[in-house]
Amino acid sequence: MLKSVRMTASILIFLLMIHGVSSAGWDVSYSPSHICALKNSSVIMSCTFTYPTGYNIKKVFWTKNPVKGKEPLDLSKYPEYKQRLQYLGDTQQNCTIRLSHVTQKDEDEYCFRFITNKADTKWIGAPGVTLTVTDLQVEAPERVTEGHNVSLTCKSSCTLTDRATFIWYRNSQPLTERRDRNNQLLLQSVRREDAGRYSCALHGHSYISPAAHLNVTYAPKNVSVSVSPSGVIVEGDSVTLSCSSDSNPPAKISWFKEKTFVGSGRIYNISKISSDHSEVYKCKSTNEHGEKYSAAVTLNIMYPPRNVSVSITGSGVIVEGDSVTLSCSSDSNPPALNFSWFKENQSSAVGSGQSFSALQSGRFFCEAHNQHGSQRSDAVTVTVKVLYWKTSYTAIVVTLCGVVVAFIIVLLTCCCVNRNKLQSKSLTNSSNDMSIISDPSLFSYVYENVVAVHSCSKTPDPKMNIPLYENVTIYENLNITNRNML
């Protein structure tokens, strides 16, 4: 009977020791008894123990999830704990341990066990320390409109035991100004630059949460048009207009020529471009938050001269001696600066310049040139006429002049004949009295073989030579008493 009572008392004491109930100086204390640890962090399980005087500690170790009636195992013997579990205490009263690189697999109840030097004297501190391992998750709205406020939260599955300081990252770059003991990140008046991938961490810990994307939506901005090719565009080329804009969500693009809608889409192609496309183009970018137009772009299409024509100042009929001005015009880009003028049936040019003065009858045309080509105009007719009244007047004047000249010739001829008769008579009388002159020394020979020139002729004509005198002696200083001799 006494033996049975002793056995029952021993079993009761053992059960009390298994549940960690303090009894007569036996005790294990944990601080704290519940730990919320961050994934991949190190956990310190603080522990103290006491035992009655007269006992010596033979062995100490930690175990997990003890089971009644089953001897607990030493965690340091487990392969998955051997490198991560470190006993920091002693065999007197400190039973603290460090468990490194904790994961969700480490979630359990951990207890301290010690064995004394006396038989059947063992103690386990139960209940022990409950370990919960958590990761971090960023909670953010799916999208936020530019200008609004937004709050991001760094969440864990349990309340972290350590007093945590949160660090925030955007696109893997730390936001150093965003360190806070609060697990929320408040962004005021969000800008499009605030969009990105946000993650959080705890100061002093290497673990960083998975990133959450913050989508900032806004109306179109920076709308512009680019032209390809960017250089000189010649008629017949293919041209591509591209519209770019900064918007979220992506914008719908519309194209306008002046104010007329001509197409949609980011790209607008014009094949075999012509001068008809030389207009102002712009694109419109539209999304749910607004719309915006690009600056206007003017397509400057180069093309050779065309529609070349000649205009006449006045009529094409002119009076002989006058001139008519012909002007050449054309449609070209760049404007034609070189003009050549031609007369039909003549291979070489008869003039140059945009204007030409025609002095004679014929059909004339011009040719306009620029660096992209040339074109000829149709021919125009210029007619030069002589007026009838002017012709009659000229004939009358010429006739009157002829009559006057003939009259003068006849008059001069008569004068010359009368003079010749008088000279012949005088010479005859003089020859009859030559004998009265007896002293030849008084003579002075002035003319010999004199030739008379007809008075109506400007130059001597051999046919008109008349021998009037030959070997004529003229006397000077003679005292002639009978003047009738002369």
Question: What can you tell me about this protein's structure?
Answer:
The protein is mainly beta and 486 residues long. Helix content is 14%, strand content 43%. It has 5 domains: 122 residues, Immunoglobulin-like, CATH 2.60.40; 76 residues, Immunoglobulins (Immunoglobulin-like); 83 residues, Immunoglobulins (Immunoglobulin-like, Sandwich); 84 residues, Immunoglobulin-like, CATH 2.60.40; 73 residues, no CATH class. Strands 11, 13, 14, 16, 17, 19 and 22 form a 7-stranded mixed sheet that branches. Strands 27, 29, 30, 32, 33 and 34 form a 6-stranded mixed sheet that branches. Strands 2, 4, 7, 8 and 9 form a 5-stranded mixed sheet that branches. It is rod-shaped and about 200 Å long. The chain starts with a helix and ends in an 11-residue tail after the last strand. The N terminus and C terminus are likely disordered.
Annotated CATH architecture of the largest domain: Sandwich
| CATH class categorisation of the largest domain | Mainly Beta
Termini Cα gap: 228 Å
Biggest sheet, open or closed, and with what strands and sense?
7 strands, mixed
User: How many alpha or pi helices?
Assistant: 3
**Rg, Å, rounded:** 68 Å
Secondary structure class reads mainly beta
Q: Say how many strands there are.
A: 38
User: Uncertain spans, ≥5 residues at pLDDT below 50?
Assistant: 1-21, 430-486
Backbone shape: rod-shaped
Helix content: 10-25%
Name of the CATH homologous superfamily of the largest domain? Immunoglobulins
Average of per-residue pLDDT values = 80
The domain tally reads 5
Strand content: 35-45%
CATH T-level fold name of the largest domain: Immunoglobulin-like
